[in-house]
Amino acid sequence: MKTNLHRLTMGVIAMIVAVSCNPTKYLAEDERLYNKGNVIIHPVDSIPTERKEAFETHLEEMLRPKPNKKFLGMRFKLGLYNMGGGSDSTSGAINRWLRQQGEEPVLLSDVNREYNENLLRNRMENFGFFNAYVTSDTTIDGKLAEVTYNAHPGNIYRIAKVDFEIDSASQLGKDIISTKSQSLLHVKSNYNLDVILNERDRIDNDLKNKGYYYFSPDHLLVEVDSSRGNHQVDMYVTLKPETPKKAKEPQKIGNIFIYPNYRQTSQGFQTTRPRKQQLFNNQHYIIDPEDTYRKKVLANHIFFNKGDTYTRWEHNRTISHLVNLNAFKFVKNTFVDNPDSANTMDVYYHLTPMQRKSIRFEVIGKTASVYNGTEVNAHWTLRNAFKGFETLTLSVFGGYETQTGGSVNLNSAYIRYGAEVGIVWPRLLSPYKWAPSRRYIPKTYAKVGYEFLNRRNAYTLNSLTMSYGYNWRENDQKQHDLAIAEIIYVQPRNITDEYRAQMDTVPTLRHIVDPQFSFGPNYSYTFTNSMDANRQHTFYVKTGLNTSGNILGLIQGANYDEGAKEIFGTPYAQFIKAEADFRHYMKLSSHSQLASRIMVGMSHSYGNSRSLPYLKQYFSGGPNGLRAYRPRAVGPGSAYPENLGENNFFADQTGDFKLELNTEYRAQLAGMLHWAAFIDAGNIWLQREDENKPGGKLSKNFYKELAVGTGLGLRLDLDFLIIRTDFAIPVRVPYRNPGDRWVFKYIDFRDREWRRENLVFNLAIGYPF
């Protein structure tokens, strides 16, 4: 059955490839398939090479129509259309379906060369090439045709003078002229229509923040005079004479009406004053007869007050806050002229609530190297839990993971389940009043979680975590998270005799099942400008600082060598831990980029601890790190990984320091299919010597102990989801002899045993960094 299905699938693929390789099958004798359009700028030395190629690409993207889509060099969609009989509409249902999934041929006769010539000329004029002209020619090769457009931009025009010819006696004129120092129009800069349009938007935005609600960029006119000669222009910023009087006057805020339980009707949003209205705090009419929300909390997120001058800043800030309260499905804001006062607007907020209770289920499949498993999650959410826009969540999960391949039986199969309860307040609950950001809502969170892990034939772990803290955004690029109290308590149970026997042989296994108790503050800072698509270089930086038991350890005079101090019968951890994740993305073209990452982790355990607790230690390897090594299989240092005993128990490789370096070239192959080539390097190290892991301590020769891997990968970019596959091999193995750590000479893809030992496959969702 499987063989027949495989043959059928291969047969269908072969048919599609065959018809894709003959795209002109159904063309008439006098028809030509439009292959592509090319733009060549003349003379070739008129623009620097790197800018010339980008400009030609930009102009080519404007050509219409677009040729038939290609995938791996073949016109698959046109192939489907041809498989359906081409233009023959009399064929059966299957053929009609194939034509619907396919794409009609784009013919040379569909190309309007004169239209494209005018389009290209107009675009070049918008960039300041006022004397540009375009010619075109057609090249026919059999049944295929191409059109070449020869663009002659000529000399570019530059700005010689910028004047603001506005009546300075009026308030509007004064406000416009006051923005001149921030103008985007600069003397000696190239003429650019896009910059002119942006300049109008800039002035409009500034006026909006001074009360001119009814003003529009279309009320501004930028006159361009090219009679100066010498390829220069003078620019005059003026106000159109037909600008309405209302647009010239700043507006005040009148009555403010808030409908927090609004349901839109067939008549649209209600903008009339309600009969029964309640004025809260002499500022806001909150129409909430059921008292669904606490009025004080809701009013704190409305930043207009009666009598204020309108500003776009407060307008957008209010909308942003209402949207981010995580309580409203729709937020509609309307301004209506007040019938009793001139240049005054009443404000209406129509807020449609989200469903108060919701539940979401997730089923997750996991695969990495030789591990496979699945997990089921259920998330229950209660919005506006205590009428102050609090969000209460309950999550439960359960799953398992097992080893399905590899050179040894790592005996790492486990099952896990647990739950977490959390609550988020959209404000800072603190005895001190502080407002880290006016634009974004700061949040206070509290979480309690429990997890049970049963690693079969080895041990079970019971884990309890609690945290309380704040997170807030400073601006679009900067975010802070401060957990002022984070408690982690782990208690082992049911350690098997077999595992205890291995612990006696290799004491490092004992660290995994040590009772763990850490408590203290935890802070992280994140910066990113990667959302700016126009930048060639973008960055992501995340730093963190975690501490535990420092004050208590000092008070008690904790000293591990004299016996660890305990709380609730469990020794507590005492450490300082700092880490940084730095990423750089360099755009090489519109379809390729170079992504790089440096991760550094450091720690210092003292007093009551000799090393980080197991859950706080660093590890390396896996689909998001060193992809040529499976998770927790690298280091520490040059220590040899231990596969132990009759059942080959595996001691996870963890450490107190970490360094990882990654570089990945990413490019588009065709459509949604992308590929990548990458190099990963890194390792972990211990703070102190461990006789059971010789070579594991961090030393000045740490760079000689880096593990290195390389490989290739494919990515399927579905816009909402990226499916990633990576094949990687180790090229430097830190636990080999110092003179034999580079293993290029041992690579042999033809050897089945070598492939089984060294070729690592990773399947994951999303990019590794």
How would you characterize this protein structure?
- The strands form six sheets. This protein has a 16-stranded antiparallel sheet.
- The chain is an alpha+beta fold.
- Helices cover 17% and strands 38% of the residues.
- β5 and β6 form a beta hairpin.
- The model is unreliable at 1-10 and 406-410 (pLDDT under 50).
Question: What's the SSE blueprint?
Answer:
Blueprint: H1 2-20, E1 33-41, H2 49-60, H3 76-83, H4 93-101, H5 113-126, E2 133-141, E3 144-152, E4 158-164, H6 171-177, H7 193-208, E5 220-229, E6 232-239, E7 252-259, E8 279-280, E9 284-286, H8 295-299, H9 312-323, E10 328-337, E11 344-353, E12 357-368, E13 371-383, E14 391-403, E15 414-425, E16 443-455, E17 459-473, E18 478-493, H10 497-505, H11 508-512, E19 516-528, E20 537-548, H12 550-556, E21 566-567, E22 570-571, E23 575-589, E24 592-605, E25 643-644, E26 649-650, E27 657-670, E28 673-685, E29 707-717, E30 722-732, H13 752-758, E31 760-765
Parallel strand pairs: 1-3, 4-6, 7-9, 7-11
Antiparallel strand pairs: 2-3, 5-6, 8-9, 10-11, 12-13, 13-14, 14-15, 15-16, 16-17, 17-18, 18-19, 19-20, 20-23, 21-22, 23-24, 24-27, 25-26, 27-28, 28-29, 29-30, 30-31
Helix pairs in contact: 1-3, 3-4
Keywords for this structure?
alpha+beta, 16-stranded antiparallel β-sheet, five-stranded mixed β-sheet
Q: How many distinct helices?
A: 13
Query: Structural class of the secondary elements?
Result: alpha+beta
Task: Please indicate the percent range of residues in DSSP E strands (runs of 2 or more).
Answer: 35-45%
- Ranges where pLDDT stays below 50 over 5 or more residues in a row are 1-10, 406-410
* Main sheet specs: 16 strands, antiparallel
Helix content: 10-25%
Number of strands: 31
Span between termini: 42 Å
- Form type: globular
Radius of gyration (Å): 33 Å
Average of per-residue pLDDT values: 87
Strand order of the largest sheet: 12-13-14-15-16-17-18-19-20-23-24-27-28-29-30-31
